[in-house]
Design a protein that fits this description.
Layout (H helix, E strand, L loop, with lengths): L1 H17 L27 H8 L1 H8 L3 H15 L9 H27 L9 H9 L4
Subcellular location: Endoplasmic reticulum membrane; Golgi apparatus; Melanosome; Sarcoplasmic reticulum lumen
InterPro entries: EF-hand-dom_pair, EF_Hand_1_Ca_BS, EF_hand_dom
Pfam families: EF-hand_5 (PF13202)
Length: 138
C-alpha cells in the first residue's frame, strides 16, 4: 500500500517539476506611446513635439514662423512652470506631457461621439453606432 502511494507522489512531483507554462505572460506594464512617430532624436524631434504639445498642437507649430513658434513656446513654458520659479522641473514636464495627452484623448473622444450621435440627442443608440461605424443606411 505504501509503494503505490509513493509512486503516485513521485509521479505527481515529476509532472509538476517537468511541466512548464504554455503561455508566457509579460509582467511589465507598457504605457501607450506618446506619439505614432518614430522616436529618433538623431534625425528629428517629431516624436518629442507630439509628446510635448499634443499631435494637433504640434501640427500648428510646424506652420508657424520661428519667431511665432518661440513666442508661443514661451507661453506654454509659463504654463508648465506650476510653481512659477522660472524653471521647469522633470516632474512639471511629466505633468504637462500627461495633461497634453489627456487633452488630446478627450478631444478625440468628443469628436468620435459627435460622429456617432447622428440624431444629436446626446445618446448613441446601437443603430447609430452601426451606421456610423459600418456605414449602414438608415
Amino acid at each position: 500500500m505504501a509503494v503505490p502511494r509513493l509512486l503516485l507522489c513521485l509521479s505527481l512531483s515529476v509532472l509538476c517539476v517537468s511541466g512548464k507554462p504554455t503561455e508566457k505572460k509579460d509582467r511589465v506594464h507598457h504605457e501607450a506611446q506618446l506619439s505614432d512617430k518614430v522616436h529618433d532624436d538623431a534625425r528629428n524631434f517629431d516624436y518629442d513635439h507630439d509628446a510635448f504639445l499634443g499631435a494637433d498642437e504640434a501640427k500648428t507649430f510646424d506652420q508657424l514662423t520661428p519667431e511665432e513658434s518661440k513666442e508661443r513656446l514661451g507661453k506654454i513654458v509659463s504654463k508648465i512652470d506650476e510653481d512659477k520659479d522660472g524653471f521647469v522641473t522633470v516632474e512639471e514636464l511629466k505633468d504637462w506631457i500627461k495633461f497634453a495627452q489627456k487633452r488630446w484623448i478627450y478631444e478625440d473622444v468628443e469628436r468620435q461621439w459627435k460622429g456617432h450621435d447622428l440624431n444629436e440627442d446626446g445618446l448613441i443608440s446601437w443603430e447609430e453606432y452601426k451606421n456610423a461605424t459600418y456605414g449602414y443606411v438608415l
